[in-house]
Amino acid sequence: MFVAAMGIEVDFRRVFESAPAALLVVDPDLRIVAASDAYLQATGTDRAMIMGRLIFDAFPDDPADPDADGVDNLRASLNRVRDNRVVDVMAIQKYPIVVPGRTDFETRYWAPMNSPVESPDGELLWIVHRAEDVTAYVQGQEDTLHAVLDSLDTAVVGCDSDGRAVLSNHIARDLFGLPPDAGPVDLWGQRFSHVAFSDPDGNAIAPDDLPVELLLRGEPVENMLVVAKGDRVAPRTLRVQGKPISDGGRLAAVLAVHEITRAQRAEQFKECGRQVAELLARADPADSLIKAATGLIGERLGWSAAEFWSVDQVGRVLRRSASWTAPEHQLPRELPDRLGKGIGIPGRAWKSNEPVWVADLDTDPAAAQQSRHWAPLRSALAVAIPSGALVLGVLVCYSDDPETPDDMRTTALTGLAAYLGEFLERRRADQFAAELEATRDEYIALVGHDLRTPLTLVQSYAEMMRDDPDMSAADRDDMLEVVHRRSGDLQVLIEKLLDVAGTRNGHITLQPRLVNLADLARAAAEQAERTSSRVTIDVNSPARVMINGDPGRLRNVVDELLHNALTWAPAGTVVGITAHADDHTAVLAVTNVGTRIPADEHARIFDLFYRTENTLHRGIPGNGLGLTLARAIVEQHGGTITVSEPEEATTTFIVRLPVT
Known about the structure:
The protein is of the alpha+beta class.
């Protein structure tokens, strides 16, 4: 294939064939499709002999050697590459080849490695087989072997029959922290006495079952996964392969160790993302799904604990809305459930809208703002939950291992946070769409009844008075009174519609000032008691609950909630009003017993024009605008209004307003 760059055409096939490394390319069916000149020279073959043939037909085992296993080992390695799409580094292999010009086999030793080549869409195209001839070393030329081993990108360690490490390449020395003259295996055990070895499922591996010990007992090690976890060292996952050597030479066993921690984490992140996406596609309540997603992320990615903090847009603080801990772990008991912007680890992530790594919880200033006692937790990563430039919440994951800031984990957790942000935005958009559709239907019903009925009556009476000039003065006065009353009802309805629309769109300007919410509640209760003697109104509030707000508009809200409670409260019961505030939020609650809001109508209680079935059945007058207007006023103040769940014993409307 020729590729032009800067006016120069490069023949990449020729470049490949001239490469100094011994390289062979096979297709997914393991048929040879290309070979470098160095490979042909090393194996004593030519392209015409091997091209298009199965690799095992072109390079078979020595039929005179009943113990030959070169074909089986190579086949297993190629299958791992083909099935798992991973680079597979094989232990040094005894794999004889046919001597050119002769019919017998010549013993050769190779250091093979197999790598996948994928298309942009993930399809396996070829497998590249690299085979370094290490026969010279195995037969006694140690300097050559050391040079070859140091050229490999995997750790290799060779032991003699006494368990002494007689060779190791630079990657092995870096991986295990070995000096050039590494001591016997028992000294290795002392070196790694603080390291716990387990399989990927967390089951401890006994010392006698570690790869080195297995090899010294003559047992081969094939693709063994070992997780090494040391004191104040993050876990590392190792893929180990090895083979005992029984030819009487100096080497008794050789291990090839490839660290696959990053590759394993990448697969974990991918699978976790898929599971989170499936979870958030359910129709369950948003709060329960966020809680489940927090636990799923913590568990699947191997964290010790995880938290979800939601941004309270009213109080402008973070509130911890979900948390998860792994078995035998717990978060510090004194952790606050509320944090200001820039305070603590979650607050810092909220303020910066950037990932926050904490390598040492015991010494980090932001961590100290939450707790002074973090053990056994040692590190944390916090990411913001985005919605454009707005932050909806913060996801925090904790580890009991020291963690170094890692781009892979940062990117993965940021991606999962984006899933959560998209989910919350989608739920909000779905809610708005459903409300808009319901509003359209209710508006049609309003026009069809609340507007048309009085207009029809006004028009009919006007026509009767016009068509009957001899109508008595008394009858005419009665009709004019009805026309006047009905037109007044229409005017009130239209003004309320305009009020709702103006408030929701922000076209009606608030007149805010410092106001005592407790005084508003008491004044509204006194007026309501004068018009209703069926129930008692009990106000429970400190003398002062100060906020910035429009007193007239806020009084409208209290009056509407009281009117609603008095409408449904049975005679002889008590309607309660409570008001209180903390440093961030003021809360007003109006509670009554009586008929509950049905579960299927609960979500629509604040919708424009909506009236419950009980309201219609009992003939209670109204137009479904009161609670809508109350919500619009509260939201214009930067607050929220909610109603208690249908299964609760009382019906409580809760208004939350920012203190400032």
